[in-house]
Structures are given as structure tokens and as C-alpha cells.
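Handover notes (outgoing to incoming on-call)

Open items:
1. DNA-binding XRE family transcriptional regulator: sequence verified, structure written out, both below. Nothing else pending on this one.
2. Nothing else urgent.
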Amino acid sequence: MSNIKIGEKLRFFREKCGYSMQELADEVLISKMSIYYYEKNMKIPGADILFRICQKLNITPNDLFYNKENIILEEQLKEYNEKIFSLKIQITDDSNYPILKKDEIALIKKDEKITNKVLFLIEDSNKNLIIRYMIKTENTIQLIPQNLNYSIIEYDEKNHKIIGKVIGKITYFDQK
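DNA-binding XRE family transcriptional regulator C-alpha cells:
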């Protein structure tokens, strides 16, 4: 079974079909609050309600319980890609653990304006991409990793180019 909770998937499919909480509730003869509780994983729908919801959303119960080939996450990634961010970068180290974990996808919005205490994607003079917090002091700008096993880097415009801000992440869950 997937690590994604059923409520998150229910909300995804409801929104994909264009239903508001109230509209779906009306269609399956339950309250809007019931839909809210299901989507927040506060309650689990009974079998009869689950089947009515699935029928209205044109899905099977397996679509809620199993994550076949990350279909939901791929569609979410595509939607984010079209609307919000400029780049996506796969994390290859643990320098920003636990904020960004290895193999997660960082979502980057192009923005070269330095903002204090924000995660940025930066290209160094060797064309390496790094993600670090930028911390301004009176005389310097430091690039600080979340994981203190990695070194702090002094930012300078000659050797570093700001690509953009990290605005989110996508996590892929194991298939089981």
C-alpha cells in the first residue's frame, strides 16, 4: 500500500473531476463535513459511501488504496510545472536534510533577488548546482546547508550565479 493517505487521493480525484466538496457531497448524499473529514484523514468512509464516491469520481477503490506508477504525483508535478515553477531539480545529496531529502524533486522559481534566510538554487563556477540558505550579514552573504556536515560557502557574484528560489518539493513514495 502507498504511503499517501487515502484522503489526499480522494481530494486529488475530486478536484480533478471539478467537484467542490459540497457538490460531491450532494451527489453521494452525505454532508460536506463528511467529505472534509475523509480528505483530512480524520474519518474513513464506510464501504457503501466509498463505492458511491468512487462511482461519481469515475475511479475504483484501488485508485485510493494503491499508487500505481505514481500516477497522482506525476499529474501533480505536471500541474505544478505548468502553473508555478520554472525548474525542477532532483536532490542528489543530503546537504539540506531534513528539509530536502535525497531523490526528492525541488521546485524552483526563477528569481535572482537575494532574500535573507531563503533556500536558493545556485550555480557555482564549476557549473555545479547547489541548494543553500542565503544569509546576509553586514559584509558577506553566506550559503548555509541545512545539514551541518556540509560546509558553509561564502557567496560572491564572480563564482556563483543565483538560479532561483526553492518553492516546494515533490516526494515519490515507494510502491508496495
